[in-house]
Each structure stands twice: as structure tokens, then as C-alpha cells.
């Protein structure tokens, strides 16, 4: 049985993921509400039939708006996780120390014979399972990126063809849509914003601080120090 203390401990120990999960649901609900309002406003202007909130949420228009943002976020993490293995930024808390580039040794990574009692089982066994687990984070992010990008392409094509049919134009195949300005305009405007965000975070973390945040160096740490152990 679990007591009140265990329940409080669960909420405290998982507060970061729970808060972000709640914010995700709230923003999705708000996006669907305002997205439906915008859709119906444009429909009235064009003399078209308005739709219900449920129909909008299940439409290709809503799906492509969500998917195009999700895929850029996952791409950001794929690139950042991979590049921070090999690239460094002196003075940034978002970087390893210069000279520590690379995959690091088994001892540093606590794998195989260097694993501890509480280490994940796949970190201990060696072979293909340890190799797979060693790259599981970037692999998972890459899979989610491909899935969300595919969803964007499929939903975007349907939404684009609906607009083309209203304009009495022939619909496009998926291959044609993947070469169309609409697809790449949606894609690249999200990619550049993510690259800007992560790039500014890397540089700002050299000179700026947020007391108590693991994303920041100590308030009194010199700018040139990449970590507290430099």
C-alpha cells in the first residue's frame, strides 16, 4: 500500500514531466479552439460551410499544423544530441568540456564491466544490446521525427488538395506535394526557428545565468568555464 507521503513523492519526483504534459494538453486544446475559429472565419468570408470543433480537430488542416511543429522539435533534438557528442562550445553549460569530444570510454559511460548495480540491464550485457541502448535516445528522437514529418507530408497534401479543389485545380500526388513550395515553406520555417532557438541557448548559456537551473552554470562561475569541473 502507498500512503499520502508516497503520493506527494510521486508528484514531486515527476513534477517536470507532469507540468509539461499538462501544458501540452492545454496548448493543444487552445490551438484546436482558435484554429477552428479561424477556419470558420475564413469559411464565412469565402461563403463556405462552417464546421464543428470536432470536425476541425479530426481534419487534415489541424493535423498538418500540429505535425509540422512536432517534426521540427524532434529534428532539433536529433541534431543537438548528435552534434554535442563531437562538437563543443567553450563556456557553455550546454556543451562538454573542450578535449572531451567523442563517445567516451566504457568506464566513463558505465557500461559492460564498469556498470553499477543500478545500471540498466542492457548497459551491462555488452554486444548488440549495449550498442543499441548506447544510441537509443537519438534513435527514438529520429524515429519520432520521421513519423511526424511523414504525418505532415500526408496531412499537408490532403489540406493542400482541398484548397486546390476549391480553386478548381487538379489535386497533387504525394510525390508532387513533396516537391511543392507549400510543403517546403511549412517545413523550413519551422526548422530555422528551432536552429535559432538552440543556437541562442548555447551562446546565452556562456554569459547569462538562471540560479538553480541545471541548464545554467552557477551564478558566480566565470564565463570561460564550460563546466564547474573546468
Offer a quick outline of the entry.
With 230 residues, this protein is mostly helical. The chain has helices at 4-13, 15-46, 53-57, 60-86, 106-109, 121-124, 127-134, 136-166, 174-178, 181-207.
Helix/strand order, N-terminal first: HHHHHHHHHH
Structural class: mainly alpha
The total number of structural domains is 2
Distance between the termini: 46 Å
Measured by DSSP, the beta-strand proportion falls in: under 5%
Parts with pLDDT < 50 across at least 5 consecutive residues: none
Number of E strands:
0
Describe the structure in your own words.
This protein folds into two domains: 1-58; 60-230, no CATH class. 67% of the residues lie in helices and 0% in strands. It has ten helices and no strands. The protein has helices at residues 4-13, 15-46, 53-57, 60-86, 106-109, 121-124, 127-134, 136-166, 174-178, 181-207. Helix 4 (60-86) runs antiparallel to helix 8 (136-166) and helix 4 (60-86) packs across helix 10. It is elongated, with a radius of gyration of 23 Å. It starts with a helix and ends in a 23-residue tail after the last helix.
Amino acid at each position: 500500500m502507498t500512503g499520502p507521503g508516497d503520493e506527494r513523492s510521486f508528484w514531486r519526483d515527476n513534477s517536470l514531466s507532469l507540468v509539461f504534459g499538462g501544458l501540452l494538453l492545454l496548448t493543444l486544446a487552445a490551438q484546436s479552439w482558435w484554429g477552428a475559429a479561424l477556419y470558420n472565419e475564413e469559411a464565412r468570408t469565402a461563403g463556405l460551410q462552417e464546421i464543428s470543433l470536432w470536425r476541425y480537430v479530426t481534419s487534415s488542416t489541424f493535423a498538418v499544423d500540429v505535425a509540422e511543429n512536432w517534426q521540427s522539435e524532434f529534428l532539433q533534438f536529433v541534431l543537438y544530441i548528435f552534434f554535442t557528442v563531437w562538437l563543443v562550445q567553450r563556456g557553455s553549460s550546454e556543451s562538454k568540456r573542450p578535449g572531451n569530444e567523442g563517445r567516451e570510454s566504457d568506464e566513463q559511460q558505465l557500461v559492460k564491466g564498469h556498470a553499477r548495480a543500478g545500471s540498466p540491464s542492457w548497459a551491462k550485457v555488452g554486444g548488440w544490446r549495449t550498442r543499441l541502448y548506447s544510441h537509443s535516445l537519438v534513435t527514438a528522437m529520429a524515429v519520432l521525427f520521421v513519423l511526424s514529418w511523414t504525418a505532415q507530408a500526408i496531412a499537408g497534401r490532403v489540406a493542400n488538395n482541398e484548397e486546390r479543389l476549391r480553386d478548381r485545380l487538379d489535386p497533387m500526388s504525394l510525390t508532387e506535394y513533396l516537391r511543392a513550395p507549400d510543403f517546403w515553406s511549412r517545413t523550413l520555417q519551422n526548422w530555422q526557428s528551432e536552429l535559432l532557438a538552440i543556437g541562442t541557448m548555447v551562446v546565452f548559456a556562456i554569459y547569462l545565468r538562471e540560479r538553480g537551473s541545471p541548464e545554467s552554470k552557477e551564478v558566480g562561475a566565470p564565463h570561460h568555464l564550460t563546466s564547474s569541473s573546468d
